[in-house]
Amino acid sequence: MNNMRKLFIGVLVSVVVATLCVFIVYRKIQTGTNDGAKTSREWHYVATTRDIATGERLAPDMLTTINWNSTLPVEGAFDSPDKAVGRISSFPLASGMVVTEKLLASADSSLGLPQKIPEGMRAIAIQTDEVADFGGFLFPGAHVDVLMTIKAATAGPMMPAVEQVVDRDRTIVVLEDVGVLATGKQIVPDPSGKPTSVSVVTLLVSPDDARKVALAQQKGIVHLALRNGADHGGALHRATYLSDLTGPPASESRPVVAKSPAPKPDEPNLQRLEVILGVKRTTQTYRNNIPVGDAPAPPPVGGFSK
Question: How much is the pTM?
Fold first, then answer.
């Protein structure tokens, strides 16, 4: 009898303990669900509407706004498409992907340079120094004229004497009113206006003008002349010679160019055929193998013809 009582008490205690454990677990689960429901919220993020390749500039039709339910926000995500429009993608973006700051290039990044070149135009770089870039005051968006200075070849002993005094040093205008696309690695002006010296200036030109600039850099010394932003007038295209600065030579008002003598006309191709018949002699004349007439043969030496 005592054993049966002990068994019953043991079973009862086990049921009570199991019930208590189940209750505790249920409460924890219910509490966790309630806590999650309390901290979860709906976010509005910018996402892509199609696949976007690296280097593409984001346009309004590439972006949309989606609802994002989570307990934690997405770091660096945009809440308005206007904040991402115009930015360049640094990585491929899949359709429906949330756009974040780390996926896009900065607004002044050089990654956006190709996107600033209009269709049919080209970007070409010019090597500069502190003088050529105006001490750092040349900025993207400025307009310049491209000048080229051509140095005369040094006169040598084989050159005609007249060429040694010819005024050949000159500067010409290669291009005018050309837009500056970038200075160094900057494609937008410094907001503070702080001058920055650069070694390369990138110009926006047509394909034909790009070839002119390339040839000018190879054959002469290239300089940039800064324009007023509102000045789009034509430049003076007449070449400036060294004599315009120093004056003409004392004995000459302008450069002298040697003239070659006119070539002499070619003499006609004449042939003569002498014919002897007994004591009679005649001569037939031919021009280019065509008979042009007979000529009497000269009298023999020491006698006369009969």
Answer: 0.50
Neighbours of 145 (CB within 10 A): 17
Which backbone phi and psi does 264 adopt, to 5 degrees?
-75, 145
Spatial CB neighbours of 94, under 8 Å, sequence gap ≥ 6? 48, 51
Looking at 184-220, which runs of residues are DSSP E strands? 200-205
Q: Are 152 and 169 in contact (CB under 8 A)?
A: yes
Q: What is the DSSP string of 124-191?
A: EEEE--TTTTGGGT--TT-EEEEEEEEPPPPP-TTS-GGGGG----EEEEEEEEEEEEEETTBSS--T
Tens-place pLDDT, residues 58-68: 899 999 999 98
Report the length, in residues, of the chain.
306
Quick check: 174 and 203 in contact, CB under 8 A?
no
Closest CA to 110 of 54, 58, 182: 182
Q: In the chain, what are the domain boundaries?
A: 1-39, 41-103, 124-246, 265-306
What is the C-alpha radius of gyration for the chain, rounded to an integer number of angstroms?
47
Domain 41-103 has CATH 3.90.1210.10: yes
Q: pLDDT per residue over 206-246, tens digit each?
A: 999 999 999 999 999 999 989 887 888 876 678 888 888 88
Type of residue numbered 146: V
In DSSP terms, which residues pair with 46 in a beta bridge?
65
> What residue ranges in 8-150 does DSSP mark as E strands?
41-48, 63-70, 122-127, 143-150
Q: Report CA 20 to chain centroid distance, whole Å.
A: 78
